[in-house]
Amino acid sequence: MTGSLRTDLIARLAAAGDPVRAEGQQRYMKSEIPFHGVRVPEVRRLARALAKDHPLRDAAAWEEAVLRIWRDATHREQRYAAIELAYAPPYRHWLRPDCLGMVEEMIVTGAWWDYVDQLAPKHVGHLLASYPTDIRPVLMSWAEDPDIWRRRTAIIAQLRFKAATDTALLFSAIEASIDQTEFFLRKAIGWALREYSKTSPQVVADYVASNHQRLSPLSRREALKVLKRHHT
Questions:
Q1: Above 80 in pLDDT, residue 42?
Q2: Is the pLDDT of residue 109 over 80?
Q3: CA separation, residue 27 to residues 13, 21, 24, 74, 147 (Å)
Q4: Of 27, 41, 55, 191, most Cβ neighbours within 10 A?
Q5: From residue 40, how far is each of 80, 83, 151 by CA, in Å?
């Protein structure tokens, strides 16, 4: 079943691909792995269709399918499809703490923003919302991890949480990287604060004011985008 799913996925992506677009996508993403040349919305549609056409019998088969597609990917969209399959509605209830290793592998081996920025708010966010007792300590640890993508995940995992945001976790994750010079961490800090400012503008405004000298100009600029828009 897993083999036929992967074979069908590759065939559908290849058929939908555009070689000219593929070259541009690869340059833009600075990717060593090539592209088929399929737009992301189409990859998502294909992944949903595959989930319907190749139903997986249990959590073990689902995890095996996701990881096989991920590990054996020859083109970047195949990994995009693995990410979608891991979060597909028929299988999302299987995304439990014992599957965190699968998601972590995708974060660490993917090691680029296009992968991590899907995995963090969707997959890890789902796990945190559903199993906070299990996942919160992991993210606290990831916030101080040498790997920047684990750190970025800890910072942006709550992008969709709105009023349910665990502010202590958010600010702890930011604090762990506030002095880092890495662009992807500075950008993540600003992004996380910007999203939370849509729910708690005063909290974010106060936080940025209190940490003005410590936050990078990039983080401050990103954090205040929505707040400044509302005051113009």
A1: yes
A2: yes
A3: 19, 10, 5, 16, 24
A4: 191
A5: 8, 12, 25
